[in-house]
Amino acid sequence: MRRVLYLILRTAVTGKPWGEAVLAEFDQTTGTWAALRWTAGGLWVAARERPVAYGVALAAVLLAVTTSFSFSIWFVPSNAMNPTLAVTSRHLVDRIGYRVTGIDHGDIVALPIPDAPGHETLLRVIGLPGDRIECRDGRVLRGGTALDEPYLSFESQVVGTECAPVTVPDGAVYVLGDSRPVAQDSRHWGLISTDDVTGRLVM
């Protein structure tokens, strides 16, 4: 975030007799909010001389701030979603957009771990409100039809999946990990409230 703000500020003040001093002072700021305030101050001064450039820079700042609150980088701590998400890999998680577009089958979502307060996990959405989820012969069925799950780990495909039948009510989702033998998910915790979902994997 600080790097983005610095680039925006540098674009706005380059060529100004006081520009170098403003950039030097930016390096003395500590924390994102201090950097944001200093950048806004530099843009305000620059606006008096180059209003068009200021408008573009201000839009960039707003975009940067919005993005910083809308997305987060997720560090994968476990094998629950292996091989789709490798342990220690990092992925972009949308924290706001999914609330507008909704959640769909197959989405990988972030949610708090019920028995580990303060910790989150990523799991795949298998069932939405109205879906009947059950397991038969090691396969997951939704509405009586076996799911095609090419994302499962090799071990998961060999061992299969066992689960208790359930119909997903309104305001809930049924989630499973891609590595079924090691994942903790709706087979253990039950249905997850959609209000508890905190994000959706983007990439």
Automatic annotation (TrEMBL):
Q: Decide whether keyword Transmembrane helix is in the record.
A: yes
Query: What GO cellular component entries does it have?
Result: plasma membrane
Q: Which EC numbers characterise this protein's activity in its record?
A: 3.4.21.89
Q: Which reaction does it catalyse?
A: Cleavage of hydrophobic, N-terminal signal or leader sequences from secreted and periplasmic proteins
- Output the superkingdom of the source species: Bacteria
Could you list the residue ranges that cross the membrane? 52-76
Chief subcellular location equals membrane
- Membrane disposition: Single-pass type II membrane protein
Q: Which family does it belong to?
A: Belongs to the peptidase S26 family.
Name the chain's protein: Signal peptidase I
Extract the InterPro entries matched here. Answer: LexA/Signal_pep-like_sf, Pept_S26A_signal_pept_1, Peptidase_S26
Keywords per UniProt: Hydrolase, Membrane, Protease, Transmembrane, Transmembrane helix
The organism is Actinoplanes lobatus
**EC class:** hydrolase
Q: What is the lineage of its organism?
A: Bacteria, Bacillati, Actinomycetota, Actinomycetes, Micromonosporales
Keyword DNA-binding, does the record have it?
A: no
Looking up Gene3D superfamilies in the UniProt record yields: Umud Fragment, subunit A (2.10.109.10)
Q: Which Pfam families match?
A: Peptidase_S26
GO molecular function term, any single one: serine-type endopeptidase activity
Q: Where is the Peptidase S26 domain?
A: 56-202
Its GO biological process terms?
Answer: signal peptide processing
Where does the UniProt annotation locate this protein? Cell membrane; Membrane
